[in-house]
Design brief:
Blueprint (H helix, E strand, L loop, with lengths): L1 H18 L1 E7 L2 E6 L4 E3 L6 E6 L5 E12 L2 E12 L5 E5 L18 E5 L5 E7 L5 E7 L5 E6 L2 E4 L9 E9 L2 E9 L5 E5 L2 H11 L1
Antiparallel strand pairs: 1-2, 2-3, 4-5, 5-6, 6-7, 8-9, 9-10, 10-11, 12-13, 13-14, 14-15
């Protein structure tokens, strides 16, 4: 009995390690994981999934699912942010609806998920989605509650993960300036406050190289 008592935590630890994904990838629009022992495990089967992201330290993967909606006027695709448990393949919807009707399609459905990225503390998912008639917005969604936080208008973004600018963003934003409506490039904080302006995309890329 004593031997079993001491062996049980070791067995559970080994099982947990085996379920922990080393990397994830998409094949035929399904999510697969490569486990730490080198074996592959299929995590989804619907054929409509993309953008898998491992949550570090957990046997869970966040991904985006496409859902085709058919109406009398035709069909369209809406998005769901999903999570799958690698150990038992249980699926959970994190969010499938915006907390606002966007100004382009006047719908609460999520029609676009661009550049999904985990926050530095692994508690939120950042991505760009539609909001305004003339521009999109960067948002973050809490992975457990599904609650949304609307951040600021952006067309593209990159989260800086190290150095003095950790937690800040390199973004492009659709604005009206001296060139008329165009994309302008900025270094901003999470509130959208501009910390540095770039004359062009090339100068933003140069700055990125300098801080890496």
């Amino acid at each position: 009995m004593i031997k079993i008592f001491f062996l049980l935590p070791l067995v559970l630890l080994c099982l947990a390690a085996k379920a922990n994904p080393a990397q994830v990838f998409v094949r035929n629009q399904n999510i697969f994981a490569v486990l730490v022992d080198g074996s592959e495990k299929q995590l989804t089967t619907g054929g409509s999934d993309s953008h898998p992201i491992i949550i570090p330290g957990r046997d869970h993967v966040v991904f985006v699912r496409d859902e085709v909606v058919r109406t009398t006027f035709g069909s369209y695709t809406r998005k769901k942010i999903m999570m799958v448990d690698v150990s038992n393949l249980n699926l959970r919807v994190i969010t499938d609806e915006k907390p606002y009707a966007d100004g382009l399609d006047n719908t609460y459905e999520i029609l676009n998920v661009t550049s999904p990225t985990l926050s530095p503390d692994n508690r939120y998912l950042y991505f760009i989605t539609e909001k305004y008639a003339t521009s999109n917005q960067l948002v973050k969604v809490h992975l457990q509650s599904g609650g949304w936080t609307e951040l600021f208008a952006a067309e593209t973004f990159e989260l800086i993960r190290n150095g003095e600018h950790t937690g800040r963003f390199l973004i492009s934003r659709s604005e009206i300036g001296d060139r008329g409506r165009d994309l302008f490039y900025r270094l901003v904080d999470e509130r959208g406050n501009t910390l540095k302006r770039f004359e062009s995309e090339e100068s933003l890329i140069l700055f990125r190289r300098e801080i890496q």
